[in-house]
Amino acid sequence: GQQVMQIPQYQHVQEGEDFTTYCNSSTTLSNIQWYKQRPGGHPVFLIQLVKSGEVKKQKRLTFQFGEAKKNSSLHITATQTTDVGTYFCGNNAGNMLTFGGGTRLMVKP
Amino acid sequence: NAGVTQTPKFQVLKTGQSMTLQCAQDMNHEYMSWYRQDPGMGLRLIHYSVGAGITDQGEVPNGYNVSRSTTEDFPLRLLSAAPSQTSVYFCASSTGQAIGGGKLFFGSGTQLSVL
After folding, report:
1. A55-76: buried (b, 16+ CB within 10 Å) or exposed (e) per residue?
2. Mind telling me how many Å the CA of B66 is from chain A's nearest CA?
3. How many pairs of residues across A and B have Cβ atoms under 8 Å apart?
4. Are the beta carbons of A87 and A74 closer than 8 angstroms?
């Protein structure tokens, strides 16, 4: 599958601050999926982006797919302690979904 | 509807031992896959299957075997465990024969330690 790189690897924020994680590829991506994994849990699907320049929102979460379809971002507005976890982006290539290394978000109350 | 069920939840093996990690889904999903998760390495695809009787290799297949005799089950076999296989293993399934457009449903994972 196509390699996707995620940054940052870790992020500490104060509750109420915003948070962004980025997913980058050197090649054009067919689509991007985002998952959240709570500590000790399993990944849970959040969203899929397919179209160039696509923007989708889920409450305080905003997902973007770059115009060139080589990058994507997940932005959380006003983080809460319930946002704690690791966020993964994944790329579908044929029958393989391969993931970036994830961004671990820690929120100080 | 249990979703994706993995057993066991925890396992300790000695180097050289063999074992099978079980995965079953009750959602009639054609697509199933196995991932391993290591600290700082994200999720890496081991093997996947697009339907009964069909399996294929992922990113890190060495040391693992799979089979898919039924739609529901997709076991992962370690023939001779090595310390490098210490990891958390996740099974996942998806609607449709190909994953394109389908979201993955993950099991709760198996934590494996090889001594």
Report:
1. eeeeeebbbbbbeebbbbbbeb
2. 16
3. 65
4. yes
What are the pLDDT digits (tens) for B65-90?
A: 999 999 999 999 999 999 999 999 99
Confidence of residue A1 (pLDDT cuts 50, 70, 90): very low
Q: Is A60 left (phi over 0), alpha (psi -120 to 50) or beta?
A: alpha
- Dihedral in degrees, nearest 10, Cα atoms A6, B98, B85, B113: 90
55-94 in chain A: CB under 8 A from chain B: 88, 90, 92, 94
Which chain A residue lies closest to B102 (C-alpha atoms)?
A: A48
For residue B108, the tally of other CB atoms under 10 A from its CB is 15
Number of C-beta neighbours around residue A17 at 10 A: 14
Phi, psi of A81 (to 5 degrees): -65, -25
Cite the DSSP H helix spans in chain A: none
Closest C-alpha to A4, from A85, A65, A75 = A65
The CA distance from B45 to B92, in Å, is 10
Of A43, A90, A101, which is closest to B41 when you measure between CB atoms?
A101
8 Å CB contact of B106 and A48: no
